[in-house]
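Appendix B. Chain record.
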Amino acid sequence: MRSRVWCGAAAAVLGGLFVAGCGGTGSDSADESAAGAAAEPVSVTDCVGARTTFSTTPEKIVTSNASSLELLLRLGAGDKVIGTGFPPGKGTLPAELDGQAQKVTVLSDTVIPKEKLLGSGADVYIDTFASMEGMGGGMGDAPTEEEFKAAGIKHIYLKSTACAAQGENPVTDLAAVEDDVTSLGKVTGTGAEARKLVAEMKDKVDAVQEAVGDTPESRRPTYFFFDYDAGTKQPTVVCNRQIANAVITLAGARNAFADCDGDFKQVGWEDVIAKNPDWIQLGVRDRGSAEANDKAFDEAEKWLKGNAATKGLAAVEEGHFLRIGSEQTTIAGVENADTVEEIARTLHPGKVDQP
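Structure tokens predicted for this chain:
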């Protein structure tokens, strides 16, 4: 089950954070308070303004899927995670995080059943999705906010995955991802590390923008994210509210389906043919090893070259393929900035420094 399928259903998110009663700038010492009473209460708000306040640093966190788990691991708060749904496969996270991720208790391979989530002993649940309805398979319904409260669980969301599809404007930057990192840092007392991660993301993206940001729209190549794992019978494309649209745009390209409002949409191959993209990203999920990933990329490329509907596309005839995984492109995280760099190096050779 792919995590990104449920992102479009989300309705509330981890949002604007403030430190109640603070007159200063918010020092690292406040961020790094030991478990127990925080220096000041920390509040986060969702898309509709509902506020969740933390007077103490959470000690038992459950995450809905691998994306929120990875952010916590990168922040150094992985020891607080007591369970997750949609766990990352072995070897799918960077090596320094993979070992930690594999030690986290898996509460479900997909959506965490309602009873198991409420009985997990968590004091906070970080939700990448807003609704578990319609999941089927006997996994149960999502707990109500009243049930979360009765179980002593604070329920918060990730803005970058839960809110974008309902936004009023296309997503063209990584601000929402950066806000999530900052907010999680405040909530978990890892603010200093959060600021470091955000600064690194900004440095990478700013460097690319300096190199290709002034490229006229007419000279920016068109770009199609081929979601191979979503199925080939009817292509699923990334629209302008999906984080991939920001990644593609920041890299100096034009998302072939930027005229589509929302996050994902199924179209016909005739629509892809009409766009006739200059470049195609072979978007496949991480299989857990370089060898397995290469095999999946080979399969995706072979399909495009052998299919009557796609073999005549300009990008296919010219071999303009990018082998970049789905997760780092379509799931919000710090690796979005790395993908911006990688795409820009390929599409604008000589302008962006090689690693």
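Further analysis of this model is presented in Appendix C.
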